[in-house]
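Please decode residue identities from the backbone states below.
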């Protein structure tokens, strides 16, 4: 969870929100990455 967040967090808090959506998309493509899905749902939903 921390690794994905650190890698995606490049700018301010606003970036985190936008990245969360990207994480969800990436997770959808990789069914094996369940952790990414959790991070994605933690923001938008």
């Amino acid at each position: 969870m921390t690794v994905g967040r650190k890698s995606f967090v490049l700018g301010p808090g606003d970036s985190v929100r936008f990245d969360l959506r990207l994480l969800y998309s990436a997770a959808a493509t990789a069914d094996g990455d369940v952790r990414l899905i959790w991070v994605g749902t933690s923001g938008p939903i």
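Observation: Residues 2-42 form one domain.
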